Amino acid sequence: MTLLVTGGAGFIGSNFVHAWLREGRSRVVNVDALTYAGNIDNLRSLEGNDHHIFVHASISDRLRMAQLFAEHDISAVINFAAESHVDRSIHTPEDFVHTNVVGVHVLLDAARAHWDRLTGAKKDAFRFLHVSTDEVFGTLEPDDPAFSETTPYRPNSPYAATKAAADHLVRAYHQTYGLPVLTTNCSNNYGPYQFPEKLIPLVLHNALAGKQLPIYGDGMQIRDWLYVEDHCDAIRLVLAKGRIGETYNVGGAKDIANLDVVKSLCAILDKAVPRSDGQSYAKQIAFVNDRPGHDRRYAVDSRKIESELGWRACESFESGLNKTVRWYLDNRSWTERVTSGAYRQWIEKQYAL
Fold first, then answer.
1. CA dist 306 to 3, 227, 240, 253, Å?
2. Do the beta carbons of residue 300 and residue 234 sit within 8 Å?
3. Is 308 marked active-site?
């Protein structure tokens, strides 16, 4: 078996590749365009691993995608490749349309052409697993039930809209052409290798640098938090046992306000690396203007994947957050390498610090 992983140098993708190879699974062909959030440093420990083949390419490159399927006799695809930051999608939506819609269309076409050529057991075993987000469902009111797999799509940002479009394309390729697809919609991920523009690594980086900890609006936006390794476990299970054509929601069963996430981070840092003045890192919290169209609440109902496939998150938010903080403290050089001048300019512009 040869697994094609797209976006495998990004946050979730690189965690998945590490876990897959660590467990002695089959060969991985890892494709990534290495845009701002795709980082070859995430794969440094895999250098020399004969089961890992890295390819620098975009999923929107039709010729290259067709070549990869032919050259490596791909058995399954897991598509992580996406422009994924809501804030950036507000400023440059065209980048998100190109990767998240056009790129997924190109990848689906290449996968379908390859699948059409397969025969027998190889054809029966082939899968295309598309990794999506809960943001396609829009926002929830305080008393609304959590998002289920049948919740209507109501995306509110260019990022969410392009992911929704990709989800629909994946479904259409199954309904129209019979391509054996699977889709997962996950909640907010956190953990190692996350690019430090997302809330948790941004706060960690700024706290240790003595900078303000920017929080949008009143900080009471509620999210369901999922430790990345639990998410990777769910994806492996869906790939192995998921019903073709089905969608599975994956959540961490922990809904918490952004402000409380930041306060929890500060409390961990207060013990692990106390400030020289003895005060809490929470003193560095700064409220900034809210972003346009900011969804107020997400919550994910994971009962389908739990009942059908037996998956449950292993990490509590508290245990996962402690593991995450420890990883960043132990890998400060990684953060230093990815927080370039371009990164600093973006953060200053976005949060008006």
1. 25, 16, 15, 12
2. no
3. no
Catalytic site includes residue 190: no
Catalytic residue among 87, 135, 230, 295: 135
Alpha carbons 336 and 330: distance in angstroms, whole number: 12
> What is the CA angle 194-78-136, rounded to 5?
70
pLDDT in tens, 23-81: 887 899 999 998 877 888 899 999 999 999 999 999 999 999 999 999 999 999 999 99
Residue from 32, 87, 159, 230 carrying the catalytic annotation: 159
Quick count: other Cβ atoms within 10 Å of Cβ 70?
Answer: 13
pLDDT of residue 140: 96
| Dist. CA 32–CA 47, nearest whole Å | 16
Catalytic residue among 87, 134, 224, 295: 134
Eight-class DSSP state of 273: S
In the annotation, is 135 catalytic? Answer: yes
- 0.85 exceeded by the pTM? yes
Q: Dihedral sign for Cα 24, 29, 34, 35, please.
A: negative
